[in-house]
Amino acid sequence: MFYYLLKYVLLGPLLRLVFRPRIEGLEHVPAEGAAIIAGNHLSFSDHFLMPAILKRRITFLAKAEYFTGPGVKGRLTAFFFRSAGQIPVDRSGKDAGQAAIREGLGVLSKDELLGIYPEGTRSHDGRLYKGKVGVAVMALKAGVPVIPCAMIGTFEAQPPGKVIPNIHPVVIRFGKPLDFSRYEGMENEKAVLRAITDEIMYAILSLSEQEYVDRYAAVVKAEEAAATKERKFRRMHLR
Predict the structure, then answer these.
(1) Where does the Phospholipid/glycerol acyltransferase domain start and stop, copy by copy (predicted)?
(2) CB of 149 closer than 8 Å to CB of 37
(3) Do residues 82 and 52 touch, judged by C-beta distance below 8 A?
(4) Which residues of 152-171 are buried (b: 16+ CB within 10 A; e: fewer)?
(5) Cβ neighbours around 215 below 10 Å, total
(6) Which of 29, 50, 105, 219 has the fewest Cβ atoms within 10 angstroms?
(7) In sequence order, which residues have a C-beta less than 8 Å from that of residue 34 and are 6 or more positions away?
């Protein structure tokens, strides 16, 4: 109930005013039945923009940190995500991927739309990074199509670290559904999962026209953070 209050009364109209989203390819999103919408992830706002413009309800797998933050801000963020119907997923530990897959399959089993960011985290520099294979596993196990989606302009509207978004136009572009039924029963084949995931990422890339990096975003972020820390350490000891 609160999901639709956010969508049509509290949040949706505000998002449309601030971002002025232009929607392309909405006809590719099925009017009924289960499907996965796989998109790039450039901004915190992505979680709310897509639900605001889709006619159907969509559920995203959101990182558990959004639900466990400290203080007033943390409680408000958790309330917001729960009210929007998002599902917390713990991304730490070796079983994190399996937990996300179970949650995602639960959504799809109810003939609903599942939103996924195959990169696994927000892009910190606006580029598109290598996708994780969980999206391929869910597509095969549930036997559902994958609709690629590109968020364009959200990085400029709300780059990392910016709390209040800029007023900036946004394009949300959906591509034709990808059918992977030819791989039915092969969800345990690593090469197949990699091929499917790469096909999905290429479809997103074609829609978004981003620069592509064939590495995982989380790894690149960690390396850049470590390099920044090292530079600060050296500057401190050279004084």
Answers:
(1) 35-154
(2) yes
(3) no
(4) bbbbebbbeeeeebeeeebb
(5) 12
(6) 219
(7) 107, 108, 109, 110, 111, 112, 113, 114, 142, 144
Q: Which amino acid is at 84?
A: A
Q: State phi, psi for 114 to the nearest 5 degrees.
A: -115, 125
- The residues, any chain, with a CB within 8 Å of residue 166's CB and separated by 6 or more, are 156, 157, 158
CA distance 27 to 114: 17
Longest dimension (CA), the chain: 64
Cβ neighbours of residue 167 under 8 Å, at least 6 residues apart? 18, 19, 157
Residue type, 50: M
Res 98: pLDDT: 83
Q: How far apart, in whole angstroms, are the C-alpha atoms of residue 148 and residue 36?
A: 8
Asked whether the whole model's pTM tops 0.90, one would answer no
Q: Measure the CA–CA gap between 147 and 205, rounded to whole angstroms.
A: 13
Residue 6 to residue 159: CA distance in whole angstroms: 23
Contact assessment for residue 203 and residue 159, using Cβ atoms and an 8 Å cutoff = no
Per the structure block, which two tokens stand in for 100?
Answer: 């996300």
Residue 158 in contact with residue 165, Cβ under 8 Å? yes
**Encoded amino acid at 114, one letter:** L
Give tens-digit pLDDT for 34-74: 999 999 999 988 878 888 888 899 998 877 777 777 777 77
Would you state the structure tokens that stand for residue 236, as one six-digit string?
Answer: 């401190």
**Backbone φ/ψ region at 105: left (φ over 0), alpha (ψ -120 to 50), beta:** alpha
> What is the phi/psi pair of residue 151, to 5°?
-95, 120
